[in-house]
């Protein structure tokens, strides 16, 4: 009973921190308090769970040697009440040099970095607190409150991949610096939000396993000090930038579902997994310094679908995402991306083939510089194609070694750098615990 009272007291402190005006600053203290709760409750029946992963990629890109590393550490502390409800706190620290400080509205290179933040940490640094949230789980489902991925990202399905960092889409490592394919419908990033997921198994699992989820984030960070500029965007200062320092998107709503079912086909089982999501966010009307004759920015909206089919040792699947990237509503599909792939498991050996394509009809590279007609009215576009083949071997204790060959072709206007392509041979070593 004493542990329960202590847990309630810690939960109250965490919620008070999250209610403050500058909730992001309060999250670190809230997270520490909640971990203290976890330590107090973590006796024999309530251990603290620690997990993580590390990947290191080295390779040769058009004759040039490159390397990248990614690491993640997760800590979760829980306490189960007498009524069976599980209360907990979780946090994660990530080291990732390729992750921008704010999430991309569409493609990582072609769109504004106007989405939610990646976490808490020095801007431009490689190590940051990615997540810090409270959660409750029980017969009602689950509720998450704090800095965490939204429902659309958590329930996403993309093309199968045997690697942790390199891939044709939504990669952690891109040694070519050209892969603009992203099919996960994630605009809110790790911004402070609340997520609710009802219990899985609608109608008692009669039609298969169905998981629903909704998320709400009150507001995303602003574009001050040119932080919303694309990664390879226009860098010179300008008094006539179409993107203001106070520009932001707010009231981010996400709705997503994941469905899985299995069917007996001959001597094996066919497993079907599919996902769908829809994300909207309102534009802050006070943030744009220059309002051109034709509106440039508008409310954000995006939708995505994914499907995987697994039969025996073979998995095939793909996904797509369409979004207006936060531009005006006159053109809904400013960014359209899709991917497809197949993997084969043969004992400890795994093989894969994958392809991704992204078409950004209005490349945002010049939107943070001078207000040129080309930038405002969508005459600059970028199309990216990515192909990858690879093989990996799985050892004991979560260790995997693999090799992949990747080719990326980026077609874009001369005003934003011209067309480029790159071929890469990469080696990835990873461990998950």
From TrEMBL:
Record carries keyword Protein transport: no
Q: Which Pfam families match?
A: Porin_4 (PF13609)
Instruction: Identify the domain of life.
Output: Bacteria
Q: What InterPro entries does its record include?
A: Gram_neg_porin_domain, Porin_dom_sf
Q: List cellular component terms (GO).
A: membrane
Domain Porin residue range list: 35-410
Supply the alphabetized keyword list: Signal
* Signal peptide residues on this chain, from the entry's feature table: 1-41
* Gene3D superfamilies membership: Porin
Q: Name one GO molecular function term.
A: porin activity
Does the record bear Transferase in its keywords?
no
Query: SUPFAM superfamilies from the entry?
Result: Porins (SSF56935)
What is the name listed in the Swiss-Prot or TrEMBL entry for this protein?
Porin
Q: Which organism is it from?
A: Parvularcula marina
């Amino acid at each position: 009973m004493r542990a329960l009272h202590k847990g309630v007291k810690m939960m109250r402190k965490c919620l008070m921190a999250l209610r403050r005006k500058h909730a992001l600053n309060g999250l670190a203290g809230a997270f520490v308090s909640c971990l203290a709760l976890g330590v107090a409750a973590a006796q024999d029946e309530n251990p603290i769970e620690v997990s993580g992963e590390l990947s290191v990629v080295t390779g040769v890109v058009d004759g040039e040697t490159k390397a990248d590393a990614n690491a993640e550490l997760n800590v979760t502390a829980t306490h189960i009440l007498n009524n069976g409800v599980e209360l907990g706190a979780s946090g994660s620290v990530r080291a990732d040099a390729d992750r921008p400080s704010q999430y991309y509205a569409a493609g990582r290179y072609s769109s504004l970095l106007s989405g939610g933040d990646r976490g808490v940490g020095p801007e431009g640094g490689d190590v940051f607190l990615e997540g810090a949230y409270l959660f409750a789980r029980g017969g009602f489902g689950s509720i998450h409150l704090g800095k965490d991925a939204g429902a659309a990202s958590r329930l996403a399905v993309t093309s199968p991949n045997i690697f942790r960092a390199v891939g044709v889409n939504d990669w952690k490592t891109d040694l070519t610096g050209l892969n603009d394919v992203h099919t996960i419908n994630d605009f809110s990033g790790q911004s402070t939000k609340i997520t609710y997921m009802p219990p899985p198994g609608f109608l008692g699992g009669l039609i298969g396993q169905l998981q629903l989820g909704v998320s709400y984030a009150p507001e995303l960070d602003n574009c001050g000090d040119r932080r919303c500029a694309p990664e390879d965007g226009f860098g010179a200062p300008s008094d006539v930038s179409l993107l203001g320092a106070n520009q932001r998107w707010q009231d981010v709503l996400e709705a997503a579902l994941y469905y899985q079912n299995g069917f007996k086909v001959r001597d094996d089982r066919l497993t079907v997994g599919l996902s769908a999501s829809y994300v909207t966010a309102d534009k802050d009307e006070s943030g744009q310094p220059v309002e051109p004759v034709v509106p440039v920015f508008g409310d954000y909206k995006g939708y995505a679908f994914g499907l995987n089919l697994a039969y025996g040792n073979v998995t095939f699947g793909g996904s797509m995402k369409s979004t207006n990237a936060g531009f005006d509503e006159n053109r809904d599909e400013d960014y359209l991306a899709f991917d497809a792939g197949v993997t084969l498991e043969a004992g400890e050996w795994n093989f894969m083939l994958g392809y991704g394509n992204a078409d950004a009809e209005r490349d945002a590279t010049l939107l943070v510089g001078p207000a040129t007609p080309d930038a405002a009215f969508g005459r600059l576009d970028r199309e990216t194609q990515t192909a990858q083949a690879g093989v990996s071997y799985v050892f004991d204790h979560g260790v995997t070694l693999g090799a992949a060959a990747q080719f990326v072709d980026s077609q874009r206007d001369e005003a934003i750098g011209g067309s480029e392509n790159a071929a890469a041979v990469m080696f990835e070593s990873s461990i998950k615990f």
